[in-house]
Design brief:
- The chain has 2 helices and no strands.
- The protein has helices spanning about 1-35, 40-75.
- Helix 1 packs antiparallel against helix 2.
- It is elongated and about 55 Å long.
């Protein structure tokens, strides 16, 4: 029962991270659309850094989640 609750919690955290990244990406695209063309490089750099941060946090949550489940099954 506890393992299922932890798994659902981990899946909710991952889903919220995906939704947060999609929201931030849409805001960056809106800003990029309204900016002059000479500022595009900096916005694209910001979008790529946000994507890298998102991937790192997603991998961390999956690693911590898998460690929790393996510890749970070991007990």
């Amino acid at each position: 029962m506890l393992a299922m609750i932890l798994m659902l919690y981990s899946m909710m955290v991952i889903l919220l991270q995906i939704l947060d990244y999609a929201y931030q990406l849409s805001k960056c695209i809106q800003i990029l659309w309204m900016q002059p063309k000479e500022h595009i490089f900096w916005h694209l750099l910001g979008i790529s850094l946000q994507f890298f941060k998102f991937l790192l946090s997603l991998m961390y949550n999956l690693k911590v989640g898998n460690w929790r489940y393996s510890l749970n099954y070991a007990i």
